[in-house]
Amino acid sequence: MKQKVAVLGPGSWGTALAQVLAENGHEVRLWGNNVAQINEINTYHTNRHYLPDLKIPETIKGETELKAAVKDVDAVLFVVPTKAIRAVAKEFSQVAENQPVIIHASKGLEQGSHKRISEVLTEEIAAEHRKGVVVLSGPSHAEEVAVHDITTITAACEDRKLAEYVQKLFMNDYFRIYTNPDVIGVETGAALKNIIALGAGALHGLSYGDDAKAAIMTRGLAEISRLGVAMGANPLTFIGLSGVGDLIVTCTSVHSRNWRAGNLLGKGHKLDEVLENMGMIVEGVSTTKAAKELADRLDVSMPITETIYDVLYNDKDVREACRELMTREGTFENEF
What we know:
The chain has 15 helices and 8 strands. It has 336 residues and is α/β, with parallel strands linked by helices. It has 2 domains: 4-181, 3-Layer(aba) Sandwich (Rossmann fold); 191-326, N-(1-d-carboxylethyl)-l-norvaline Dehydrogenase, domain 2 (Orthogonal Bundle), CATH 1.10.1040.10. Strands 3-2-1-4-5-6-7-8 form an 8-stranded mixed sheet, with helices on both faces. Strand 2 (27-31), helix 2 and strand 3 (61-63) form a beta-alpha-beta unit. The protein is globular, with a radius of gyration of 19 Å.
């Protein structure tokens, strides 16, 4: 059945997901506050800054007014950076006139509060303006979804019917959706894998090979699982798409902003220079700070995250940080 969907955030991932929805026959409005970008989408059906080779379906309508974008929609998909989630959710709640399903495909933890994105959305969007919140997450690159590469991700919600609604909304022959009731686990895996991807990129920048890559991904997954379980997640979620799946794709691909940023750090570039060079949000940088503070509060051991934090925020030398991480006192592998 054809649905009306507002996609909030015309970055690479928001644009790719809007394309999936449009190709599935839904009416799609793509909202952003950059007038020139929205004019480009409506006039030329391109979004060259984010996906330069993509021809956007002409049925997608760009909007700069949030009230117009969300008018009478069945679902609202948030794909804005984590730091903007609260402000956009608050504005949406002020202009909304009905009760759509709220979906988010952003990955991170809020600075200061350390809250997951679904928690922020629930706080800021009045109950009469949301049927529920569904998390859409998993191993995916916008560049590959845009060219119809095979992709599988997860729709997570405690309400199974809402998860299945999102599953049907997006699923087609190149984009497969699984459902999962573990919102905490899916959001935690989505956020924390960006930290490990920074480390994987840094190891590549230091010219380490596949052994080092396997080490940081495996031990990184252990850290993600420890913190996630302490927050209330199902440990099995972390061996699924939004756990090990998302970790693999983010730690091994040049499409990953976090991997690219880490690679530059490993080559000796300073953080400010790296972020300026990227030209897009690198969620792993802010997530590292939030995760480190959260781990301290919950008394969870996360040595890789702590090491990356020191590199990012205490200007620690990357190679020295790696040496210190490797020469810590020996521990039991399955220690949880």
